[in-house]
Specification:
The protein has about 230 residues and is of the alpha/beta class. It has one domain (about 5-220): Rossmann fold (3-Layer(aba) Sandwich). It has nine helices and eight strands. Strands 2-6-1-7-8 form a five-stranded parallel β-sheet. Strand 3 (about 70-75) and strand 4 form a beta hairpin. Helix 4 (about 95-100) runs parallel beside helix 8 and helix 7 crosses helix 8. The longest helix is centred in the C-terminal third of the chain and has 20 residues, at about 210-225. The radius of gyration is 17 Å and the shape is globular. The two termini are about 10 Å apart. The structure holds 2'-deoxycytidine-5'-monophosphate (DC).
Length: about 230
């Protein structure tokens, strides 16, 4: 039996990881898994249930009550939290403001990593996040590490949220991105770091087509190798 292929994409917030991951998944017919959406859904649950982030017992028991599932429609990943579609709500500011704190909690990470590893056991997948190439799939077939100028990232995110009609300022977005970068890279549990064997993709000045061409330059030989 042929081995399944795992592509890991890590990087900073709002770097376009999910855009490239989705485009690649569509092109290669791989399954796309947005691991950030899982941390966001857990955050939403904690917010709704008013769970204090230092209440270890409440967190452990909440994790046992949280059931996450992905449903792929046209390579957009839709996530359900206990059978409720929450894909839109997890992108809103209350979740964005708390998700880095939630994703720094050890028990939360252990459970999410366990679920993510199960998803990548037998299928060809592309998963994006912060620790995919370092912790979740250290033996991934291809690892990408994405980065871009924080100002450009904030501008892109601002445009996205404006189109959705959200009332936010550019300053709020920039602050949120800077804060999340800080928390993601300095937390004790699986901080965001580039795996030694990850390929850097800086998209500050390149468009989506150029990014895809760059990545396909690495993916194509991999597919050919696996096919032989
Ligand atoms: O990719 P995103 O912005 O949707 O991720 C939301 C948060 O979840 C982000 O602050 C970092 C965290 N995260 C993580 O710690 N590990 C992952 N594998 C994915 C996301």
């Amino acid at each position: 039996m042929q081995k399944n292929i795992v592509i890991a994409i890590d990087g900073y917030s709002s770097c376009g990881k999910s855009t490239i991951a989705r485009t690649l998944a569509k092109k290669l017919h791989f399954i796309y898994i947005d691991s950030g959406a899982m941390y966001r859904a857990v955050t939403l649950y904690f917010l709704r249930k008013d769970i204090a982030l230092d209440d270890h017992d409440a967190i452990v028991s909440a994790l046992a009550d949280i059931h996450l599932n992905f449903h792929s429609r046209d390579y957009q990943s839709h996530i359900t939290l206990n059978d409720e579609e929450v894909s839109e709500e997890i992108r809103q500011m209350p979740v964005s403001q708390l998700v880095s704190d939630v994703s720094a909690i050890r028990e939360v990470r252990v459970e999410m990593v366990r679920q993510q590893q199960r998803m990548g056991r037998s299928k060809n997948i592309i998963m994006d996040g912060r620790d995919i190439g370092t912790v979740v799939f250290p033996n991934a077939d291809l690892k990408l590490f994405m980065t871009a100028d924080p100002k450009i990232r904030a501008e892109r995110r601002f445009k996205e949220l404006m189109l959705k009609g959200e009332q936010v300022t550019m300053e709020e977005i920039f602050e949120n991105i800077a804060h999340r970068d800080f928390l993601d890279t300095t937390r004790e549990e699986s901080p965001l770091v580039r795996a030694d064997d990850a390929i850097i993709l800086d998209n500050t000045t390149i468009d989506q087509e150029q990014q895809l061409a760059f990545v396909l330059g690495y993916v194509t030989p991999l597919l050919l190798k696996e096919a032989n």
